[in-house]
Design a protein that fits this description.
- Helix 1 packs antiparallel against helix 2, helix 2 packs across helix 3 and helix 3 packs across helix 4.
- Helices cover 81% and strands 0% of the residues.
- The protein is mostly helical.
- It starts with a helix and ends with a helix.
- It has one domain.
- The chain is globular, with a radius of gyration of 15 Å.
């Protein structure tokens, strides 16, 4: 199985695994549950990829998987994963990834503001 497909499926499974307890157990709003689940899944994959990088094991998590997870709401986990694991922090070597992360953060922040403004 191709690494992008393998890790995308792993990311989706993690998102669902984290989403259900957040939504049902903690009774968080739908969007907050989604952001939390996507963030936790993204953070977990950053940790996995850092471990794979340190041990020299292959296949590693492709950057497009991180980009996709960031775009669908895992941007918080991506920021935390980059910081906690000191992973993929070279903005020159990972310029595309960094730009997508910043863009997804701004887009989700705007969406949060719109949702909050609509409620008031």
């Amino acid at each position: 199985m191709r690494p992008a497909i393998l890790y995308s499926l792993m990311g989706a499974a993690l998102v669902l695994t984290f989403f259900l307890p957040l939504r049902a157990g903690l009774e968080l709003p739908l969007y907050a549950s989604w952001l939390g689940a996507a963030g936790l899944a993204t953070f977990a994959l950053y940790g996995l990829d850092k471990r794979l990088a340190r041990t020299g094991r292959r296949p590693r998590v492709p950057e497009r998987v991180f980009n996709f997870l960031s775009l669908i709401g895992g941007f918080i986990g991506a920021w935390l994963g980059r910081t906690a694991f000191h992973h993929k922090t070279d903005t020159h070597g990972h310029a595309d990834m960094y730009l997508i992360l910043v863009a997804s953060t701004v887009a989700h922040c705007l969406l949060i503001c719109l949702v909050l403004a609509a409620r008031s």
